[in-house]
Design goal:
- By secondary structure, this protein is α+β, with helices and mostly antiparallel strands.
- The protein has a domain of 108 residues: Nuclear Transport Factor 2, Chain: A (Roll), CATH 3.10.450.
- Strands 2-1-6-5-4-3 form a 6-stranded mixed sheet, covered by helices on one side.
- The longest helix has 17 residues.
- It is globular, with a radius of gyration of 26 Å.
- The relative contact order is 0.15.
Length: 194
């Protein structure tokens, strides 16, 4: 009987030692902040959620891309492509969040927005738009020369995710470069079959 009480006391005491913290064995730096919303791009390889019929990617929310969203994105890229940095900067809200090749920033003044827009070495011509998750719109651009700058990627494709709010760009997030369109393999024609 004494052994049974001892085992029962041990069974109660052992779980109490670790508490119910599921992450107690996780390594982390004390006092560090993690999970900044701009540190990862949520559109590149989304993890599908379990469902009775799983989808390969999450469904976009927000409906089709609106004419207003398309006009804001096209207006920004057209102004920038023609070297009108101040006009391109007026398409952004204050503040606005940007993320470009691992550099995340909150642009809190008009000067910050202008400085961000003046850093591009290439212009961009909008080719197409599509809806993404979290109400973002992804714009696919062809890179072009920019007045007074040297663009090493002329003709290449680039993608940016935009969150448009009240006719302005509230978030600008550089997306991974799109895969080039596959070149169709020509079908061999047998002699005499034409």
């Amino acid at each position: 009987m004494r052994l049974s009480w001892g085992l029962l006391a041990l069974a109660v005491a052992l779980p109490a030692c670790g508490g119910d913290d599921q992450n107690r064995m996780t390594l982390h730096t004390p006092g560090s902040a993690t999970g900044h919303p701009l540190t990862s791009f949520p559109f590149a390889n989304p993890t599908p959620e379990a469902s009775p019929t799983p989808d390969a990617t999450p469904k976009p929310d927000g409906g089709p891309v609106t004419n207003e969203e398309r006009a804001v994105i096209r207006g920004w890229s057209d102004q920038l492509r023609h070297g009108h940095v101040a006009a391109a900067s007026r398409y952004f809200t204050i503040p606005s969040a940007v993320s470009n090749t691992g550099v995340d920033a909150l642009l809190s003044t008009r000067a910050d927005v202008k400085k961000f827009n003046s850093t591009f070495p290439c212009g961009a011509k909008l080719m197409k738009v599509r809806r993404a998750v979290h109400h973002f719109v992804i714009g696919t651009f062809t890179l072009t020369e920019l007045p007074g700058k040297k663009c090493d990627g002329t003709g290449q494709l680039a993608e940016v995710a935009f969150l448009i709010h009240r006719h302005h760009i509230q978030q600008w997030l550089r997306a991974p470069d799109p895969e080039p369109e596959p070149t169709p393999t020509p079908t061999p024609v047998e002699p005499g079959s034409t």
